[in-house]
Task: inverse folding
């Protein structure tokens, strides 16, 4: 009996020992995983900053600007004197405009040993003289090689003859995820080679900067003077070009993805400008309600709102009401994604277009043509650059807005915070005149807009219900 009890005791002790070993082993694994997390957490960015800073440059520009001779031009615009012009002229005579030098600062980074530097277009736009200063104190004069206003990218060059230049590599911005560490390097407020740290807050941001918006959002502080500087990943690669901030928000900055720069820079280096693809359609967002009405399981793709007669899409058989969900093997997630994909497609390339028509997926072949200003105007909704879209007064708009008018154009949509919205224009308004020119239809409206003078206010005669009034849109 005692032997039986002693055996039981021994077995119990062995069981407790084994359980203890297992527990210790599990705690060891947890500790190992915990230590791995701690090891992977950056304790300092000093080595990374030291590695990349030499290739980041300070860019200072000098441009000539005209200052109005009459003080009233500040209020009434260039060439306009207002009601006090004659009074001022009587006592002071005709005071001519004068020229003055304007200086600005920005950032950039060297991408190869030949001395090519990437920066923002707005940093060097209209610059008469460009100076580049390196972190080691060396200074160079630079010239503009090419600029692209639509993406706000520019390529400038310094002479690298007999001089060793540090360079930065462009990384893969598509691999960046929300939460990834980044460094922003530049010259905020003229403070040279400042490093700030943060994370990627979001990807694929559309902020209304242009037709090819696709920004990386970061909380790494970006301030005036940072424009054109690099956004760096932990490998020391450039994954973005710092370009914009929201003045009213803290910790909200935007960078052009490096993959966008990869498609732009070779063209700027070779031709000084960028050519983009064109297929001849106007598109809009697929809302959940539209998706349901079209027999789609989810709201995705770009809805074809109009097709330019004789354009590539028309020749391929694409129709109004089709929803494009893939282009050249790339998924089209929304309406903002398609213009970027088309723009980056080589001119003359025949691609496959997958679309949904009446609930069924079909595939068509299309040959991409070059986007020209005339072609861009033909596919843009009239008034889009004013922050509104307009159309002829068709039966559907008559029903929707309860219109009795037959002449003019109706405002179909007004963008939030756009020029038209700021001027008080509303959907359903009928535009009767543009700068005193009568508007009977969409053709008249486009012709009137084409004759407007840049940087001068646009005068619209608007009818809203039974009331008619004038509205002024500041286009400068």
Result:
């Amino acid at each position: 009996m005692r032997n039986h009890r002693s055996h039981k005791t021994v077995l119990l002790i062995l069981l407790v020992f084994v359980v203890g070993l297992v527990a210790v082993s599990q705690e060891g694994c947890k500790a190992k995983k915990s230590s791995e997390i701690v090891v992977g957490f950056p304790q300092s960015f000093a080595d990374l900053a030291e590695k990349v800073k030499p290739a980041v440059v300070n860019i200072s520009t000098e441009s000539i600007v005209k200052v109005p001779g009459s003080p009233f031009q500040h209020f009434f615009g260039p060439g306009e004197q207002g009601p006090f012009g004659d009074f001022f002229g009587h006592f002071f005579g005709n005071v001519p405009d004068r020229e003055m030098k304007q200086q600005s600062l920005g950032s950039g980074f060297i991408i190869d040993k030949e001395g090519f530097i990437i920066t923002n277009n707005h940093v060097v736009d209209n610059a008469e003289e460009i100076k580049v200063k390196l972190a080691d104190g060396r200074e160079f004069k630079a010239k503009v090689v090419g600029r692209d206003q639509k993406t706000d990218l520019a390529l400038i060059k310094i002479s690298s003859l007999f001089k060793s230049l540090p360079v930065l590599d462009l990384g893969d911005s598509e691999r960046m995820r929300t939460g990834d560490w980044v460094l922003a390097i530049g010259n905020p407020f003229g403070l040279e080679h400042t490093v700030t740290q943060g994370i990627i807050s979001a990807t694929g941001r559309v902020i209304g900067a242009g037709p090819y918006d696709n920004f990386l959002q970061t909380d790494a502080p970006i301030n005036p003077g940072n424009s054109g500087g690099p956004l760096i990943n932990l490998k020391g690669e450039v994954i973005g070009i710092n370009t914009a901030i929201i003045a009213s928000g803290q910790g909200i900055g935007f960078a052009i993805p490096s993959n966008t720069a990869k498609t732009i820079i070779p063209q700027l280096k070779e031709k000084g400008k960028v050519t983009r693809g064109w297929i001849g359609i106007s598109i809009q967002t697929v809302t959940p309600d539209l998706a349901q009405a079209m027999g789609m399981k989810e709201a995705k793709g770009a809805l074809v709102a109009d097709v330019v007669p004789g354009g590539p899409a028309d020749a391929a058989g694409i129709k109004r009401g089709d929803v494009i969900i893939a282009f050249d093997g790339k998924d089209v997630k929304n309406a903002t994604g398609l213009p970027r994909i088309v723009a980056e497609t080589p001119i003359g390339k025949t691609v496959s277009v997958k679309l949904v028509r009446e609930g069924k997926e079909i595939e068509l072949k299309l040959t991409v043509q070059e986007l020209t200003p005339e072609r861009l105007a033909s596919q843009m909704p009239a008034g889009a650059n004013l922050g509104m879209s307009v159309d002829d007064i068709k039966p559907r708009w008559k029903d929707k807005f309860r219109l009795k008018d037959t002449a003019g154009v109706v405002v179909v949509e007004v963008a939030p915070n756009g020029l038209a919205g700021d001027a008080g224009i509303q959907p359903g308004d009928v535009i009767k005149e543009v700068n005193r020119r009568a508007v009977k239809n969409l053709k008249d409206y486009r012709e009137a807009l084409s004759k407007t003078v840049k940087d001068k206010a646009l005068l619209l005669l608007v009818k809203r219900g039974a009331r008619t009034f004038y509205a002024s849109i500041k286009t400068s």
In short: The mean pLDDT is 82. The chain has four domains: 52-158, 173-271, 277-376, 381-473. Residues 111 and 316 are 40 Å apart (CA to CA). Residues 173-271 form a domain with the Thrombin, subunit H fold (CATH 2.40.10.10).
